[in-house]
Design goal:
alpha/beta, eight-stranded mixed sheet, four-stranded antiparallel sheet, 10 helices, 23% strand, globular, binds adenosine-5'-diphosphate, binds magnesium ion
């Protein structure tokens, strides 16, 4: 099957007063139609920078983003706009991502009006339908974002993201800012909408329990690079990269009250400003050798369904 999204050698650095921040370093991956792929990693590892790069909301330093057969990195703004209809994003914070001065019907209706050119009754009907899809009714149409709870606001953001019936949704920690009791409802809604509209998801999260629940495949990121990728069930059962192993060990429990706490593995995250020459995880890794300090490992096939970027991947038998 042809990939819906193909990311090739994506690189993004930020210049800051302290120096160059290597936020995304040579990242490549594909997402198939209808697939949910999770991107996980600790705060600051580059997840949101990837999301913004995919949408070309920030300029990248190198690499290609091919969406639906079109190269985003090599087209005019107008062409990109036409294709961007098929790729939407939902941000983490529903408090800052919705315009506080707009009524819900205008928030959801805006892309329908400005991009699809709908108006009048047709526009109103479509807005009502999209709100109904996320569990909101006609009584909500004329209200403003501040009149809603966090969960409801995220539903509005989802309705807006789906207004143009995209093929793919990027979800950047869509439930991280919500109360635990509301998180499951929003996740279930996303699953339902995905099945209904046959959507692909790039699901960004630092919560492994959520990833296990929602994703088919998972990509684990560490300091701007993907260190392990594969089927969720396989990666969770038998992680091969030492970083993935520490992440999974750090899951405190499946108790919903503390499951989203991702305890940091031992050692410090190196600054993305002065990355080590070799493996960026070496400083925190108990398997490191001399090679790890001098040579950056490449993401390569470990087996038919797994890629690992490590000189000493865990190759032990899978017990269970
Ligand atoms: N606009 C920016 N200017 C400078 N540095 C940035 C900017 N955006 C992100 N960064 C840096 O890039 C790295 C990756 O950030 P980000 O993609 O937000 O990580 P994540 O979403 O995984 O928490 C971090 O070190 C962050 O400080
Ligand atoms: Mg982020």
């Amino acid at each position: 099957m042809m990939a819906l999204l193909s990311v090739q050698k994506l690189t993004k650095t930020f210049s800051t007063k302290a120096g160059l921040v290597q936020a995304v370093d040579d990242v490549s991956f594909d997402i198939l139609p209808g697939e949910t792929v999770a991107l996980v990693g600790e705060s600051g590892c580059g997840k949101s920078t990837i999301a913004l790069s995919l949408l070309q909301l920030i300029e990248t330093n190198g690499g290609k983003v091919i969406f639906d057969g079109h190269d985003f990195t090599d087209m005019s703004d107008r062409e990109r706009k036409a294709i961007r209809r098929n790729l939407s994003i939902v941000f983490q914070n529903p408090y800052s991502s919705l315009n506080p001065k707009m009524q819900v019907r205008d928030i959801v209706g805006e892309p329908l009006k400005t991009i699809a050119g709908l108006k009048g009754r047709e526009l109103n009907e479509r807005v009502e339908q999209h709100l109904k899809d996320v569990g909101l009714g006609p009584e909500h149409l004329r209200r403003y974002p501040h009149e809603f709870s966090g969960g409801q606001r995220q539903r509005i953001a989802i309705a807006r993201a789906l207004a143009l019936e995209p093929k793919m949704l990027i979800l950047d920690e869509p439930t991280a800012a919500l109360d635990v009791s509301v998180q499951a409802q929003v996740l279930n809604l996303l699953k339902k909408l995905q099945a209904k509209h046959k959507l692909s998801f790039l699901f960004i999260s630092h919560d492994l329990a959520t990833v296990e629940y929602i994703a088919d495949r998972v990509m684990v990121m560490y300091l701007g690079r993907i260190v392990e990728a594969g089927q969720v069930s396989a990666v969770f059962r038998a992680p091969r990269h030492p970083y993935t192993m520490t992440l999974l060990d750090a899951i405190p429990s499946l108790d919903p009250d503390d499951r989203d706490r991702l305890t940091a593995p031992v050692g410090e995250v190196p600054s993305p400003i002065n990355l080590p020459v070799g493996c960026a995880f070496a400083g925190r890794c108990d398997k490191k050798s001399q090679t790890c300090l001098t040579t950056k490992p490449k993401l390569t096939d470990f087996d038919s369904s797994r890629k690992v970027s490590c000189h000493h991947p865990n190759s032990g038998e899978i017990t269970q």
